[in-house]
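User: Fold this one for me? It's GRF-type domain-containing protein.
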Amino acid sequence: MAASSSNLATSHRTKLVKCYCGDVCYVVVSRTPDNPGRKFWGCPNLKQEDELMDVMKIVVGLLMFIAIMLVIVVLKILFNLVCAKL
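Assistant: Here's what I get for GRF-type domain-containing protein.
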């Protein structure tokens, strides 16, 4: 009986799960109040993905700022053209 249970544990530990990024995931134990002790698969690149998302948010924010500034410049030019014709 002990041999079969150790084989089961060994086969469970050798199970490989791949993330969508292509890397092999590892088992992580949750420490959150909602899921204490719950095991789940974790990607080794999660921190890199979080950092990439932070950079993307900054880039999107800058692009939106540039777009708003361009709209303001165009509106000022149009306003000046209309005022010049009056």
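One thing worth pointing out: The CA atoms of residues 56 and 62 lie 10 Å apart.
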